[in-house]
Design goal:
Layout lengths: L3 H21 L2 H14 L4 H13 L3 H14 L4 H13 L3 H14 L4 H13 L3 H14 L4 H13 L3 H14 L4 H13 L3 H14 L4 H13 L3 H14 L4 H13 L3 H14 L4 H13 L3 H14 L4 H13 L3 H14 L4 H13 L3 H14 L4 H13 L3 H14 L6 H11 L3 H17 L6 H4 L6 H16 L15 E7 L6 H12 L5 E7 L7 H9 L2 E4 L5 H10 L4 E4 L19 E4 L14 E5 L14 E5 L19 H4 L7 E4 L8 H13 L4 E5 L3 H13 L7 E4 L4 H7 L5 E3 L8 H8 L4 E4 L8 H8 L6 E2 L2 H13 L1 H15 L7 H20 L7 E2 L22
Parallel strand pairs: 1-2, 1-4, 2-3, 4-5, 5-6, 6-7, 7-14, 8-9, 8-11, 9-10, 11-12, 12-13
Helix pairs in contact: 1-2, 2-3, 3-4, 4-5, 5-6, 5-7, 6-7, 7-8, 7-9, 8-9, 9-10, 9-11, 10-11, 11-12, 11-13, 12-13, 13-14, 14-15, 15-16, 15-17, 16-17, 17-18, 17-19, 18-19, 19-20, 20-21, 21-22, 21-23, 22-23, 23-24, 24-25, 29-30, 33-38
Length: 888
């Protein structure tokens, strides 16, 4: 038997040996000796404590806790045991108990800096930042050179968004311990949060140099490279991580972001899908895949992903924001606004949310709310170009055009790439006849179209001097940007006794489109066709709206449905041919047809040019607006009608009483040149020709439509500069259509515009008996009036240059007999010519539809063809029934 003294010497010896092994890192030998001691003396304090530390180092934290707790029971006054007990409790996630242990240690030794530092980390884990900061600060006050405390304080400052302080604390930690990888990495993260990406990259480069195998530093380096726009290099970092750790879900998610930025969308989606498969609860991967699907126009799938991300993290600002964007993509603007409101309740100063909320309000015509939201965004972030752009859109819609132009100016000056801004700026400048700006825009257009640097709405381009090739390039860029990747809806093939035609428009009401086409709807051959109207505008209560609705077999108001929902509705209606009457005009919704709801889709009447979209099969034209050989400038196949492509209504009423000249604001005597085309169609070159006419024709006036106050002021100012009394420019207020037609009788000659002709305005004049003078242009939009005049039997009023145009206008103004002869011929031709023979136009259009349908039934691709007067086109026969096909 060993006596007490000898036993004590033996324990001390074994304890010393065990400690040597422990300090040398030989944990197995140390563990053996500590165990032997405890076998003899189960309450041996040092052995309990030190074996607990071995178990902690081995990652066996439960056993470590039991042993160190036993040591604490042996000696409750040991500060080191209490401090180490706190560390083990933290590893077990028992942070409240850890804080209690540190507090007991600090009660014994208030200057124990390790306990203060570790207490701070436990409080940080408990999300008690103020208490954590006090603990770190006490440790630093006692030991200013304590690097761990500076490092941990920096991490806390980062957590609570005090990034400048985080950088300062990391700087101190690095000055004390320069080779500490985690401090360099943390400093890089904090600098990145401050958007100081170059400095952040320098810190992370240092971290990677110190420990190349540290995947955390490489990950943060990838994040910073992405922030610098160096997505290819960021991708390289993520690929290095995944080569070592193939299941690194966060790296897969960020790799998807980099690939998405590089335009490698399929690879990006695959990367997101792998990340989600590894971790279905990775809300960031779900949210980012949703963003990718939005880019691919797969908004419904995107919405489901954002919803899943929000189910995982309901207060995630980004996911709420992105969900709102998906809803806007589905035209669910009210729901999108509700989503933005939820996000703004959490982050009221988020200017991007405010901007998108303003854009959504604009879409549903809540203009005061839209402006308030956008103004707040700009107050917070004056250089946020997108907010200025959307503000311009709201102001433009509400008729505040000069202010809109200023907002567009600001958006463009900031320099942030905004795809649509230049086109909307160009359109606004043309609308107010700001020819200083339009001249600058004209010089810039060709470069931007060629470089694809702007997604210019094709409608805006028509008012500028462009070629058919440029218009096609512009339309293709626009269509690709807006609709690339749009998924088609499922469409079954059906057997119908009658062909089902759907006309789509935002203009079923008191609008030029309806004035032209209402009688066509009434006259369609109901033995062969069923006619549906798809309307996405509010009921304006007009007689024309009521007439259109009554003329259709089926009328659907789809204002509150998204594009894909409307497309699905059309498949349920089993539409055979869908005719887009708007193209890219105001309030148009070509996105509906981008989902391919009908086997044949047609561009007709509303947009005088190509839509540049692969989902539009045909454009209805004639040999004047699209001469033979120019088919290459159209994405669609060209169908030429025998006469004018533009259908007209032979039932349009004209008021019996015309106003007097005095009532119309015109002089009692003098020649009246009229042009009721929209102000955006009036160019400097055309206006100069008009001013020369007023100079040459004494007492003459120019009668224009009052479009907007800024255009009127600009036109008067230019007239004065040309030596013309601005009073000789008379502006007609808008009025009811029959009254407007009647007042044409007060004018002597209608002057058309170039490069964008009047269309309905010119046919209005001709229907009212007023001769129209035009100059044939180089594009569809510049040849419409020539087609109208040829179809009404007055081809001599078509000139080929502005010089000839001005000369003929002057001749007609000075030769009343010649002009009287032309007026007489127009009156004689008016009711017998093809232009106003609605039933003739109806037959030709129906022949065209039949030919399109027969080609499709035979499985042939769309092709250009000409409708011969009174005959079916070659290769197509009218049919009474359309048998089921095997495939669409």
């Amino acid at each position: 038997m060993i006596h007490g003294k000898q036993q004590s010497i033996d324990v001390d010896h074994r304890l010393g040996r065990a400690l040597e092994f422990h300090q040398a890192g030989n944990l197995a030998s140390a563990q053996l000796l500590y165990g032997q001691i405890l076998a003899d003396q189960p309450r041996q304090f040092e052995a309990l404590h030190l074996l607990g530390l071995v178990r902690y180092q081995q990652g066996r934290h439960g056993e470590a806790h039991a042993l160190i707790s036993a040591a604490n029971r042996v000696d409750p006054t040991s500060v080191e045991v209490l401090s180490n007990l706190g560390i083990v409790l933290q590893e077990l996630g028992r942070n409240e108990e850890a804080v209690a242990a540190y507090d007991r240690a600090l009660a014994l030794d208030p200057r124990h800096v390790e306990a203060l530092n570790n207490r701070g980390t436990a409080l940080r884990a408990l999300n008690r930042p103020a208490a954590a900061a006090m603990s770190f600060d006490r440790a630093i006050a006692i030991s200013p050179d304590y690097a761990d405390a500076h490092h941990n304080r920096a991490g806390l400052m980062f957590d609570i968004g005090r990034h400048e302080e985080a950088v300062a604390s990391y700087d101190t930690a690095i000055a004390l311990r320069g080779g500490h990888v985690e401090s360099h990495r943390g400093r890089g993260r904090a600098l990145a949060a401050l958007r100081k990406y170059d400095a952040a990259l320098a810190s992370l480069n240092r971290a990677v140099a110190l420990r190349p195998e540290d995947m955390g530093s490489r990950f943060e380096r990838g994040v910073v490279l992405a922030g610098l726009g160096r997505h290819q290099e960021a991708l390289g970092e993520y690929d290095k991580i995944l080569a070592k750790v193939p299941d690194h879900a966060a790296a897969l998610t960020n790799r998807g972001i980099a690939l998405q930025q590089l335009g490698r969308l399929d690879e990006a989606e695959a990367s997101y899908c792998r990340a989600i498969a590894l971790d279905p609860d990775d809300h960031k991967a779900c949210d980012n895949r949703g963003l990718l699907l939005q880019r691919l126009k797969r908004f419904e799938e995107a919405l489901a992903l954002h919803d899943h991300a929000l189910a995982l993290r309901p207060d995630d600002i980004d996911a709420l924001h992105h969900r709102g964007k998906a809803l806007q993509g589905l035209q669910c603007h009210l729901e999108a606004i509700a989503c933005y409101e939820s996000a703004l309740a959490i982050a009221p100063g988020n200017f991007r949310l405010l901007t998108d909320r303003g854009a959504a309000f604009n879409e549903i015509r809540m203009y005061p709310e839209a402006l308030a939201s956008l103004d707040k965004a700009i107050a917070i972030a004056p250089e946020h170009a997108e907010a200025h752009y959307h503000r311009g859109n709201v102001l433009k819609r509400t008729g505040r055009l000069a202010e809109a132009l200023q907002s567009y100016d600001k958006a463009l000056l900031i320099g942030t790439p905004l795809p649509y801004a230049f086109g909307d700026y160009a359109d606004c400048a043309a609308t107010i006849c700001d020819w200083t700006r339009t001249a600058q825009i004209q010089a810039e257009l060709e470069r931007r179209i060629a470089a694809k640097k702007a997604v210019i709405p094709p409608r805006a381009l028509l008012a500028y001097n462009t070629t058919p090739a440029q218009q096609l390039a512009c339309a293709r860029t626009y269509a690709e940007f807006r609709f690339a990747g749009t998924a088609p809806v499922h469409r079954a093939v059906h057997n119908h006794c009658k062909m089902r035609i759907a006309y789509l428009s935002a203009d079923f009401g008191a609008h030029a489109t309806s004035y032209l086409i209402a009688n066509l709807f009434e006259r369609h051959d109901r033995s062969r066709f069923e006619i549906t109207g798809i309307s996405y505008s509010a009921d304006d209560g007009s007689e024309t709206r009521a007439r259109v609705v009554a003329a259709l077999d089926t009328f659907r108001d789809v204002r509150d449905l998204g594009d894909r929902e409307v497309a699905r509705l059309m498949t349920e209606l089993e539409i055979d041919i869908a005719v887009d009457l708007d193209g890219y005009t105001s309030d148009a919704r070509p996105g509906i047809l981008s989902h391919r709801p009908a086997p044949i889709q047609v561009n007709y009447l509303g947009h005088p040019g190509t839509m540049g979209a692969d989902f539009i099969d045909y454009i209805v034209a004639d040999a004047v607006v699209v001469p033979l050989g120019e088919e290459r400038h159209y994405a669609e196949k060209v169908v030429r009608l025998p006469d004018c492509y533009q259908v007209n209504d032979s039932r349009r009423p004209i008021s019996e009483r015309a106003p007097t000249r005095q009532e119309a604001g015109l002089p009692e005597h003098g020649f009246v040149f009229a042009s009721f085309n929209a102000s955006r169609k009036i160019t400097a070159a055309v206006f100069d020709a008009w001013m020369r006419l007023l100079t040459a024709v004494e007492g003459s006036v120019l009668w224009l439509l009052h479009d907007n106050a800024w255009a009127e002021d600009n036109l008067k100012r230019v007239a004065a500069a040309r030596g013309i009394d601005p009073a000789r420019l008379v502006f007609a207020a808008r009025t009811e259509q029959p009254d407007h037609l009647a007042r044409h009788r007060l004018a002597d000659l209608f002057l058309d515009t170039l490069p964008y002709n009047g269309r309905a305005t010119c046919s209005d004049a001709l229907w009212a008996g007023l001769p129209v003078l035009t100059c044939r242009g180089d594009t569809f939009a510049g040849r419409v009036a020539a087609s109208l005049l040829q179809s009404v039997g007055l081809p001599e009023l078509v000139t080929s240059s502005l010089a000839d145009y001005a000369a003929l206008a002057l001749w007609l103004a000075q030769d009343p007999d010649l002009l009287g002869e032309i007026r007489k011929r127009l009156a004689e031709n008016r009711l017998g010519c093809p232009l106003f023979d609605t039933d003739l136009s109806r037959r030709h259009i129906e022949i065209a539809y039949t030919a399109m349908w027969q080609l499709w039934q035979r499985g042939e691709s769309p092709r250009s063809f000409k409708v011969e007067p009174g005959h079916d086109p070659e290769g197509a026969r009218e049919a009474a029934a359309f048998p089921r096909e095997a495939a669409a």
